From TrEMBL:
Superkingdom field: Bacteria
TM helices/strands, residue ranges: 32-50, 62-83, 89-109
UniProt KW Secreted keyword: no
InterPro entries cross-referenced by the UniProt entry: ATP_synth_I
Name of this protein: ATP synthase I chain
Annotated compartments: Cell membrane
Length: 115
């Protein structure tokens, strides 16, 4: 499912970036792409940590620390992008939302399928 979400997210981000470029928002397009990539990396990292949690016993404190570090890393990346004015807040939000929606929609449609 990770591969499916990755491909679908990248396709949705390409569509969002092309629409933004067609509307004449050059810097916004970069922000959308960066926000989507950060969201996708966060999803992949989260799925790996959940897989590690389900496959091992007694590692809950380690996983808690790992998830906190992951959250701080994502927030730090977003802060640096905004602070250095490499991305716009709205574009990052759109990119993160696109990646989040792809994860939610893919999970919804795959929830009824048997593995």
């Amino acid at each position: 499912m990770i591969r499916s979400v990755t491909v679908k997210t990248l396709a949705a981000l390409v569509v969002a970036v092309v629409i933004s470029l067609a509307a004449g928002y050059g810097r916004m397009s970069l922000s959308i792409a960066l926000g989507g990539i950060v969201g996708l990396l966060n999803f992949v990292s989260l799925s790996k940590s959940i897989g590690g949690l389900l496959n091992a016993e007694g590692v809950a404190p380690v996983m808690l620390i790992f998830n906190m570090v992951r959250l701080m890393l994502v927030m730090g990346i977003i802060f640096v992008l905004i602070y250095l004015k490499l991305a716009e807040i709205i574009g990052l939000s759109i990119g993160l939302t696109v990646s989040f929606l792809v994860v939610i929609i893919t999970g919804y449609f795959n929830s009824g399928k048997k593995s």
